[in-house]
Amino acid sequence: MRGVSVIESIVAQPPPLGSNPATNSQTAGVIPELVIILIILLLIATVVALVTQRLRIPYVTGLVLAGLPITELLSRRIGLDPSLVLNLFLPILIFEAAINTDISRLRSTFKPIALLAGPGSIFSSAIIAVLVKFGLGLDWIPAFLIGVILANTDTVSMIAVFKEIRVPSRLSTIVEGETLFNDAAALVSFNLILVVYATGSFTVVGGLKELLVVALGGGLVGVILGYLSLPIFVRLNDPLSSLLLTVALALGTFQIGQFLGVSGAVAVVIAGLIFGNLGLSRSTSASDRITLLSFWEYAGFGVNTFIFLLIGIEINPLTLWRILPSILFVILAYQLGRILSVYLLLAGLRWFDRPIPLRWQHVLFLGNIKGSLSMALALSIPLALTGRDIATAKAVMA
Question: For 119, phi and psi rounded to 5 degrees?
Fold first, then answer.
């Protein structure tokens, strides 16, 4: 990526006493510059919201398109550190989805959800990676990263439609549950691929063992921290203090999971489910619950806004035009992966659970939408990875 990360400069350690005054003034000048850039981005997002409402086009599409023309203007001043996206944006997105998910509804549809979010996600990722590897000639690492990113589903738009039209409760729960656990599965697979990239070695047995350890370990961390937060939450009578607790729970759970070598994403999902289903139900005030849920809705909206706007800024329009045929190929690849993972796997569901009607399977396939988590994962691809710009552009625009 071009430029030095503004945020990375801010979070860097302050210069020691006695250092060069010129260096100190340069560092101090970074903060006003960042504030100006944030104001510009917020104003752009506001204008995009007004325009997209009038033209009746998706807000996120407008954000990406708005970011493209200002690439040369701001990208040299905005350097987006992938670790920032991974450690700040992703936990917020996952926790916001988890606290709004009803566990009692998940239990009745756990088998199809687990099938689609687990084996289905891995199967779809593998199909996409193989097609991209041999169809476009990419190396295995970027091919698998693209596969994981595009196998992830984000059905927020579908769930919004479900609120306006009557659909079976079981279908709505499957769609919602797959999105939630698919997010965790995608992050686990994404991190595993990055470990292979860093170490340069991989075995099937070792990979499966690592996958199992990080997933189960992350679940255990989420259970412990989720239940530990409940008695603290019950004793807090101030809704603003409760907000601070939830922010600490979301970001802290992710960091503790990463520090222990397990999946921080799985930990956040489990902690969010426990807090949302047990903690919020114990709140004596309906206004407190509304305050908490409204805050996290706003946090998710804010993160989505910045992710899609920064995606547009990140992409070079010339590069995008040059690889347009490859992007169309990648779109076909991930649609094929979704077709095989949905129809083949759900065909065998009848052997151990109630079968999924074929028309429901059509909905699951047609709802193969890519959202903020896929965009965030694309931004999280390491800067040092060969072909990172090409892989990011293909993953994002597909």
Answer: -60, -35
Q: Which of 342, 368, 367 is nearest to 357 (CA)?
A: 342
Alpha carbon distances (Å) from 124 to 131, 334, 338, 360 = 11, 7, 6, 19
Residues 229-279: tens digit of each pLDDT: 999 988 887 888 889 999 999 999 999 998 998 888 889 999 999 998 888
Look up residue 25 and give its two tokens. Answer: 């003034």
How far apart are alpha carbons 373 and 365 in whole angstroms?
19
- CA distance to 96, 149, 201, per residue, from 271 (Å): 11, 24, 32
Exposure string over 36-58, b if 16+ CB within 10 A, otherwise e: eeeeebeebbeebeeebeeeeee
Report whether 304 contacts 61 (CB < 8 A): no
Place of tokens 């708005």: 66
How does pLDDT run across 299-326, given as a tens digit for each residue? Answer: 988 888 888 887 777 777 777 778 788 8
Token pair in block for residue 141: 């690492």
Q: What is the DSSP letter of 238?
A: -
Interaxial angle between packed helices 372-379 and 90-99, expressed in degrees from 0 to 180 and rounded to the nearest 10: 160
How many beta carbons lie within 10 A of that of residue 148, not counting itself? 28
- The Cα–Cα gap between 331 and 360 comes to 22
DSSP helix/strand/coil, 152: coil
